[in-house]
Structures are given as structure tokens and as C-alpha cells.
Specification:
Distance between the termini: 63 Å
Largest sheet: 4 strands, antiparallel
Number of helices: 8
Bound molecules: iron/sulfur cluster
Strand content: 5-15%
Number of strands: 7
Order of helices and strands: EEHEHEEHEEHHHHH
């Protein structure tokens, strides 16, 4: 089947539920819109992935060693703390995206394809992620020709997003090491902490509040320590996050895990604020 699509996202928000990955700069820029946490996922073994997909993940991940010498590759993501079936906090009441346009998060600029697949992947049918897009979205510039992405703007956004995410990896690795210390202090041994931190998503496990909230604590402390954030900027970001977490704690009261995680997040962020301002 020949797959040719003209496409331009119209920002209708139909696909906008659950969490979205952000760069550190985007976390700061959208601090008063998204409650933000960290997720850490172990990357599947190289032999199970397409070589180009592995190369792309490799640039955005880092290795940690378990006590028995095995190495785990970890993909750490700064991510909005949106429960899987809940609307993105940037969605308007009519479901449209309130930040639609060139300034929205990089992950959204490449929706709905994303870059889970290598940029030169050849689709042999209409990719299922377009299922929610309305007909008016299929009238923009050429996106796919013979199943391959041809839109230079889309490719530019993918490359820019990858570059930004790769630029955050060193910081995220430092944050992960700090998070392990935090979890060890809470009673985990090191290997347990690594496996627990890499096996849950933000809201999906009983220990998710510790994993998600200590992740953001570690990230901000690491960003200040590495000079990626000044103390005044960190303080402003954390204050906005406290306000936004408080707002969404009320909105997502139907989800015990989200409610619990946001309550823990507020407590942790108040601790971070004290650390920044002392
Ligand atoms: S920021 Fe806009 S495009 Fe991105 S997930 Fe939220 S509503 Fe959708
Ligand atoms: S990717 Fe499609 S469904 Fe999602 S906001 Fe854009 S047009 Fe709407």
C-alpha cells in the first residue's frame, strides 16, 4: 500500500491525554501549566530493537551497574504528571490546545507520529496514531510520501527535540544518582532502588509517589548544582509547580495515586524551596 499523507496538526486536543515528555527548558517555560515529575525506564536489549531506534535511544540514555556487574541502560524523562486517561493540563474546555503553535512542547510539535520510530522508517499503512485526527488536519503540507516522512519542518522538530533531550542526559544521570541516594535513605538497597525506579511509571505503582517526587527533587537540585538553573529561576519554577500541583490535586481527586503523588510532590517541593532559599 502506498501511504501519502498531507498533514498539519490543528491542535484539536483529541489525542492529548496522559503524560508528555518535556525538556528541562520546557519544564521551566511551562512550570505554571504542567505538574512535572521524572520517569526512568530500562531500555530493552539492543538485539530486540531496530538498530536506528536503538541509536536514537542510546543518545538519550545512560548506563548504571547492578551489584552483580550487569549494566542497565536507563532512559530518564522529564514528564508531565498527567494520569493516563486525564486531559493534558494545557487543554482548553473545548478540548483544543491552549499552547498550539510553534511554542508548544517539542513532543507535541511532532504529534501524532512522535519519534518512537526512526525518522526514515517506512510506514506500509496509515499509522494508527492518526486515528483521532480530524479531517481538516489532512489538508496541510506533505508529511508522508510512499510511507516515508518528507516534511522538512517535521524533521527539523524531531532533530531539535532529540538534540535538546540529549543535552539534558548528563543532568538527568546526576539526578538519578541523587534519587538512588534518596531511596536508599528511605530503606531500599541500591539494586532494589534501581529496579524500583526503572519499573514504574509516574502513577502506576504504590511507590510511585516516592519515585516521581524524589525524581523532581533530584532534578532541580542537580540543575542548580550544574549551573543549568540559577537559584532565583529554580525558586520561581518550584513556586509555580507547588501552585499547579495544588490545583491538579483537586482536579484529579478521582485518582488516589495521582492525588497521593501530587500531595507528596508538594511536600517535596516545599523542601526544595527551603534548600534553594537557605
Ligand atoms: S500541550 Fe497541547 S498539544 Fe501538547 S499534549 Fe497538551 S494539549 Fe496536546
Ligand atoms: S495530532 Fe491530530 S488529534 Fe492530536 S491535536 Fe493534532 S490534529 Fe488533533
Amino acid at each position: 500500500m502506498t501511504v501519502n499523507i498531507d498533514f498539519s496538526c490543528v491542535g484539536c486536543g483529541q489525542c492529548c491525554t496522559g503524560s508528555t515528555s518535556l525538556t528541562l527548558n520546557e519544564m521551566v517555560r511551562f512550570a505554571d501549566i504542567f505538574p512535572v515529575g521524572m520517569t526512568w525506564n530500562s531500555v530493552p536489549p539492543k538485539k530486540t530493537l531496530d538498530p536506528k531506534a536503538f541509536q536514537s535511544i542510546r543518545d538519550r540514555s545512560f548506563l548504571v551497574k547492578l551489584g552483580d556487574g550487569r549494566a542497565i541502560r536507563i532512559l530518564g524523562r522529564i514528564s508531565t504528571m498527567t494520569p493516563s486517561k486525564s486531559a493534558c493540563p494545557a487543554r482548553n474546555e473545548d478540548m483544543s490546545c491552549a499552547v498550539h503553535g510553534a511554542g508548544k512542547p517539542g513532543a507535541c510539535l511532532i504529534a501524532p507520529l512522535g519519534f518512537g520510530m526512526p525518522i526514515d522508517f517506512k510506514y506500509d499503512r496509515l499509522p494508527p496514531m492518526f486515528a483521532k485526527c480530524p479531517s481538516e488536519a489532512f489538508t496541510g503540507s506533505p508529511l508522508l510520501r510512499r510511507g516515508v516522512v518528507v516534511d522538512p519542518e517535521f524533521k527539523r522538530h524531531v532533530n531539535e527535540n532529540r538534540k535538546q533531550l540529549s543535552g539534558d542526559v548528563g543532568l538527568i544521570e546526576v539526578a538519578f544518582a541523587q534519587q538512588l541516594q534518596h531511596m536508599i535513605q528511605a530503606g531500599y538497597n541500591r539494586d532494589e532502588a534501581i529496579l524500583a525506579a526503572t519499573s514504574v511509571s509516574i502513577f502506576d505503582a504504590p511507590q510511585s509517589d516516592l519515585v516521581a517526587t524524589s525524581g523532581i527533587w533530584s532534578l532541580i537540585v542537580a540543575a542548580v548544582g550544574k549551573g543549568r538553573m540559577s537559584k532565583p529561576l529554580a525558586s520561581d519554577t518550584v513556586r509555580k509547580q507547588i501552585a499547579v500541583c495544588d490545583r491538579y490535586r483537586a482536579i484529579w481527586s478521582h485518582s488516589d495515586t495521582a492525588h497521593g503523588a501530587l500531595a507528596s510532590q508538594i511536600e517535596v517541593l516545599n523542601g526544595v524551596l527551603e534548600w534553594i532559599e537557605k
